[in-house]
């Protein structure tokens, strides 16, 4: 085995040998070893496909892609394809068509991950910061029986993302707000914090109700105390009008 790995896998002959060994390992259900041999043969896509379809390990596939593919453009393209397909259940073109769309009627693909944190991280990696936050809000519309994640965990993560500068900046940009300086951005960002959409309001109250149901009234009060004092019940599409006013 040591002699085998000492060969030059840049040559066509040894690449074919490595690929042949990969298929043999696949037949023996040694999928991680098969993926490694696919990499030796220079077939990154086959290696990633094996990891995703046979090992069901998205994180490992991401690590392999980032370590193996040195061309940043090719790496980003493959990463986008993989995340869109495996997590969001859509093609990259479908993702781009709905980029930044955070209205209440936005629907998840039937093939999308049921884990809101994985979806949120995926949107973040794809630089769709508004939807990274909004996909957490959508969980407030689910029935409790179908939820796989604690609502208070979702609320805490959303509370952090809601005020994140990248999320605020994208929301302002999508709303058509012109922010020239850092001082203006901070001022408009503070104003943005006083706005809450119906979906956001639902998340606040459902989280508070969840704490009350578990006998934690102080936690429920803590959630409600985070609501802005002056609430403007708006949809995201109306943000431009309010900011202009």
Architecture blueprint of SSEs:
Elements: H1 2-5, H2 12-27, H3 31-40, H4 44-55, H5 58-68, H6 72-88, H7 92-97, H8 116-125, H9 129-137, H10 151-162, H11 165-174, H12 182-192, E1 195-196, H13 198-213, H14 217-225, E2 232-233, H15 239-244
Parallel strand pairs: 1-2
Helix pairs in contact: 2-3, 3-4, 4-5, 5-6, 8-9, 9-10, 9-11, 11-12, 13-14
InterPro entries: DmX-like/RAVE_component, Rav1p_C
Protein name: RAVE complex protein Rav1 C-terminal domain-containing protein
Domain RAVE complex protein Rav1 C-terminal: 1-222
Q: What do you see in this structure?
A:
The chain has 245 residues and is mainly alpha-helical. The chain has 15 helices and 2 strands. The chain has a domain at 1-56. 65% of the residues lie in helices and 2% in strands. α9 packs across α11. The termini are far apart. The relative contact order is 0.07. This is RAVE complex protein Rav1 C-terminal domain-containing protein.
Name the overall outline.
Answer: elongated
Main sheet specs:
2 strands, parallel
Order of helices and strands: HHHHHHHHHHHHEHHEH
Give the distance, in angstroms, between the N- and C-terminal Cα atoms.
Answer: 72 Å
Give Rg in angstroms. Answer: 23 Å
User: Considering DSSP H and I runs of 4 or more, what fraction of the residues is helical?
Assistant: 55-70%
How would you classify the helix and strand content by structural class? mainly alpha
**Biggest β-sheet: strands ordered side by side in the sheet:** 1-2
Overall average pLDDT: 85
Strand content: under 5%
Q: Got a strand count? A: 2
**Uncertain residue segments:** none
**What is the count of DSSP helices, taking H or I runs of 4+ residues?**
15
């Amino acid at each position: 085995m040591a002699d085998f790995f000492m060969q030059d896998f840049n040559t066509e002959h040894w690449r074919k040998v490595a690929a042949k060994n990969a298929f043999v390992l696949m037949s023996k259900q040694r999928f991680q070893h098969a993926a490694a041999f696919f990499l030796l043969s220079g077939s990154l896509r086959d290696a990633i496909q094996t990891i995703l379809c046979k090992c069901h390990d998205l994180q490992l596939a991401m690590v392999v892609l980032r370590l193996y593919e040195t061309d940043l453009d090719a790496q980003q393209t493959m990463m986008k394809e993989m995340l869109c397909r495996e997590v969001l259940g859509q093609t990259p073109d479908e993702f781009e068509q709905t980029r930044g769309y955070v209205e209440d009627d936005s629907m998840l693909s039937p093939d999308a991950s049921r884990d809101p944190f994985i979806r949120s991280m995926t949107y973040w990696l794809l630089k769709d910061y508004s939807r990274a936050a909004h996909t957490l809000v959508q969980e407030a519309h689910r029935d409790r029986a179908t939820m796989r994640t604690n609502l208070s965990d979702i609320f805490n993560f959303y509370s952090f993302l809601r005020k994140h500068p990248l999320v605020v900046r994208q929301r302002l940009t999508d709303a058509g707000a012109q922010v020239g300086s850092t001082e203006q951005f901070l001022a408009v960002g503070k104003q943005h914090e006083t706005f809450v959409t119906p979906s956001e309001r639902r998340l606040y109250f459902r989280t508070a109700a969840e704490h009350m149901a578990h006998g934690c009234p102080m936690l429920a009060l803590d959630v409600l105390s985070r609501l802005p004092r002056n609430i403007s019940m708006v949809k995201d599409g109306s943000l431009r009008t309010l900011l202009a006013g």
